[in-house]
Amino acid sequence: MRSAAASVEVVPNALLIAEPEPATRGFLSRHLAEDGFSVLEATEGGEALVLAEERRPDLALVGDDLPDGPGAELCRRLREGEPGRSWNRDVPVILLGQPDSDAVDRVRAFARGCDDFLGRPFHYEELLARINAVLRRANGVPHDRIVADGIVVDTATRRVTVSGERVELSSKEYELLLKLASEPERVFAKDELLRDVWGFRSTGRTRTLDSHASRLRRKLAEPDGARYVRNVWGVGYCLIG
Fold first, then answer.
1. CATH number of the domain to which 192 belongs
2. Domain residues for 153?
3. 3-state secondary structure of 139
4. Residue 230 burial class via C-beta count within 10 angstroms: exposed 0-12, middle 13-18, buried 19 and up
5. Strand partners of residue 40
6. Is the separation of the CB atoms in 54 and 8 below 8 Å?
7. Shared domain check, 135 and 29
8. C-alpha distances in Å from residue 204, one per residue of 39, 174, 191, 192, 194
């Protein structure tokens, strides 16, 4: 494996294919090159990471059965980064699933950060359309983002980062954060949060909000001790205060 310290060579309109099956890889490389892409080929995840670091592709097309691990795991490594290594952690990724892939496989792939999922067998024309659509989203109008202090919420991808580090949230934790971040210094009443986030018409006695707020506070905590999601006693919660 080449050194991670090697110089970076940025190739315009570059597409990285990480696919172990020679026939599939060759088919994709030939047609994508004919359609104007500069194709980079890898047969395993480790090789793909080296190319991502050295060549900075515009998109990665990842097979789900790499010799050194599932394609979804490669996607996770791309998104999270690794100590001492540098690549574009927001590089768009399309995962090519196995013929028997199902909805659970798709959900898990998206949870690990892929931008699109296409099961096999697939038609090349559909794949090309998906590649172009993902590239348009990545290079066109920026995603809607909510920024509050060190927190960034990308509402298009539901990606949440704190000081540049990704934070994994449950669905309700994300929705609670989205509500608080809409007006980060405002104190939202508990009744309002329970109504807008959980749809409660009558709050009664419930610890749902408090337990979710506590978990969200822990996940958003900064290494230097800075904390978000402040409990204003007797009133409700604010994100920053």
1. 1.10.10.10
2. 145-238
3. helix
4. middle
5. 16
6. yes
7. yes
8. 59, 23, 9, 13, 10
Q: Is the pTM of this model over 0.70?
A: no
The answer on 19 and 114 residing in a single domain is yes
Amino acid 142: pLDDT? 47
Give the whole-angstrom CA distance, residue 17 versus residue 14.
Answer: 10
pLDDT, averaged per 10 consecutive residues of the chain (241 residues), comes to 44 85 94 92 95 93 91 91 87 90 84 88 89 80 70 84 87 91 89 84 73 94 79 91 73
- DSSP string of 153-209? EETTTTEEEETTEE----HHHHHHHHHHHHSTTS-EEHHHHIIIII--S---S--HH
In a domain, 2, yes or no: no
Residue 6 has a pLDDT of 43
- Token pair 């994100």 is found at 239
Rounded distance, CA 148 to CA 132, Å?
32
What's the pLDDT at 183? 86
CATH number of the domain to which 74 belongs: 3.40.50.2300
DSSP label of 149: T
